[in-house]
């Protein structure tokens, strides 16, 4: 009789422990990774690796009940002009609301690898940043208040559980009504300091 009580109690404890571990692990932020096709302005298509690092928070938004939010966005790819060179970019700026900048464009223009990113400020103000890859580091190039508009070519927002995002899926994402605000970079870089 004693043996059955111990076994029953042990099984209950194991079951309770399994439930606690499941609940705790579902609240721990992690990363969202995928591969993505990117069409450069010269028509060439490359495949890059994306990683969205998540952290606790974000459940203040009704649309985000997961309890996590983006902490950092990362791009990793092989230099199309130097096949042995791996290049990595990660978000460097944080909005006043503690959200990382979002990469919108990866391109090669005038033999320079370029990333355009945006930090979203309250009131619908997108602040654009341009980064140029030179001598193994990313250098921010100040954008003027007006500049040539560029179409977004990176997947916007968090991945939907896909391991590979092709150009068609990306077109759907950019044409989505919630993403239209990010469909292009420019032609203006607003002054959001008054907001």
From TrEMBL:
Q: Where is this region: Disordered?
A: 58-77, 176-195
Biological source species: Methyloradius palustris
Official protein name in the record:
Lipoprotein
Q: Where is the composition biased (Polar residues)?
A: 186-195
């Amino acid at each position: 009789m004693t043996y059955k009580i111990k076994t029953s109690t042990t099984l209950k404890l194991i079951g309770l422990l399994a439930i606690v571990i499941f609940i705790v692990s579902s609240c721990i932020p992690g990363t969202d990774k995928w591969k993505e096709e990117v069409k450069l302005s010269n028509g060439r298509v490359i495949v890059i690796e994306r990683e969205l690092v998540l952290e606790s928070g974000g459940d203040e938004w009704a649309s985000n009940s997961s309890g996590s939010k983006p902490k950092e966005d990362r791009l990793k790819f092989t230099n199309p002009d130097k096949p042995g060179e791996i290049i990595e970019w990660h978000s460097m700026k944080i909005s006043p609301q503690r959200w990382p900048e979002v990469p919108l464009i990866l391109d090669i223009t005038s033999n320079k690898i370029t990333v355009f990113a945006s930090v979203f400020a309250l009131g619908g103000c997108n602040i654009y940043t341009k980064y140029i890859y030179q001598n193994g580091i990313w250098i921010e190039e100040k954008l003027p208040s007006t500049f040539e508009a560029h179409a977004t070519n990176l997947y916007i927002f968090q991945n939907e559980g896909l391991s590979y995002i092709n150009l068609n899926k990306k077109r759907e994402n950019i044409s989505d009504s919630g993403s239209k605000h990010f469909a292009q970079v420019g032609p203006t870089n607003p002054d959001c300091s008054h907001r």
